Amino acid sequence: MTRFTFPVDNLLCRCLGILITVCLTLLFVFIIVPAVLGVSFGIRRLYMMTLLRIFEWATLRMEMGAKEKNQHLYKPYSNGIIAKEPASSLQQEIQELRGPASCLRSEPEFEMSDIFYFCRRGVECIVDDEVTKRFSAQELESWNLLTRSNYNFRHISLRVTVLWGLGVLIRYGILLPIRVTLAVTGISLLLVLTTLVGFLPNKEFRSYLGEKIHLMCYSICVRALTAIITYHNRENKPKNGGICVANHTTPIDVIILANDGCYSMVGQVHGGLMGMIQKAMVKSTPHIWFERSEVKDRHLVAKRLGDHIADKTKQPILIFPEGTCINNTSVMMFKKGSFEIGCTVYPVAIKYDPRFGDAFWNSSEFGMVNYLLRMMSSWAIVCSVWYLPPMNREEGEDAVQFANRVKAAIAAQGGLVDLIWDGGLKRAKVKDAFKEEQQKLYSKVLVGDQDQEDQSDDKILEDENLEDKSCQDPSKGK
Description:
- With 478 residues, this protein is α/β, with parallel strands linked by helices.
- The protein has helices at residues 7-37, 43-69, 90-98, 114-127, 158-197, 203-224, 253-258, 272-284, 298-310, 368-376, 399-414, 432-472, 474-477; strands at residues 227-232, 242-246, 264-268, 288-290, 317-319, 330-331, 344-352, 381-387, 417-418.
- It is built from 13 helices and nine strands.
- The strands form two sheets. Strands 1-8-7-2-5-3-4 form a seven-stranded mixed β-sheet. It has a two-stranded parallel sheet with strand order 6-9.
- Helix 5 (158-197) runs antiparallel to helix 6 (203-224) and helix 5 (158-197) crosses helix 8 (272-284).
- It is flat and about 100 Å long.
């Protein structure tokens, strides 16, 4: 039997085919081709400016509607719940609690009023903890049509509600499919082309082609996120034989930096799709992948990093010394491993604009796939990247001091808070060393300066006596 079809069905199929063909053609001409050639038509910048104007209009409409209905519009927002006075030393604060009478005593001793200092500090840390709040999404003062920073927006104004619904349709119905298509295209090209280039016998030509392929594929992936990136001070870009260190907010930090230059990645060997990508990448360009059993061997890691840096033909190494993702409001403690090697360090500061989408990856709340879908369904990823002047370890400076100096420079340039705390506190408890440090500070208050001076004098006398004995008995000095 022949199947009867309506003319309307044929018309719909033809229209759908024409629409898909036009969309793919526009995608190829305006996104993939510019990515391959490394050019931009300025469409993303225009898109960003349009979004800003829409956000401003929506915020004004909401404020007017909330004022008319006497409603609370914004979530409570504050950089700190507790208004803290300028920091002073533990000894000064305890002296203020004890009062002037304690100064008249000949010997320092414990007083019950000292407890109030530690109680106040403990309550402050519980109510307004400056560490754990770095592992949650950054709050916004205004609304970006993404529902994260506002209450009751649907009931403020009918126009705003319609605008929000239209935004959901655009983000999930138009932008998300396009972005997923681009991401699949970029990853597929990276897998196929790097594998093919790996078969080339000439090492220099293979390395040259590998760099071009990486730049092209990362450029496509950047467009898959509608990432609008502003690079500053490109004359300070990392060079071969050095290490590039940057603050860490999200896994896409790698794509943001690799879009402007090639780096050698350092990481643990994975399985699945990530493992396939790692194997393909290392065939065309040098990267450093460690087995799970090798990651904790600090000497082996340092040796492989040192061997890579010694070869000036290899790309600079990209490392995120924090070791975990922070919500882009601060920079936490840098691990000292990458600063012990003794090479030039190229600091890079990355600052994301949260108005267009939250780039922070809270790994304890979202898996990688879920996180990437959230990124691709946001409005855009807008960020600024600053290349800072290269820094070297100074004479008499240890690795920890060098790491802190680099961290301070990155924090100052990116407008971030410089914290001494370890990012590992996201999942681990406070180390005993931090507790012991506070105990030592308080013990100095109890012991007093006089006892410390007496102890230092006794130490000097002991050293002098040892010197005298060694002078009297030369055989013991050998």
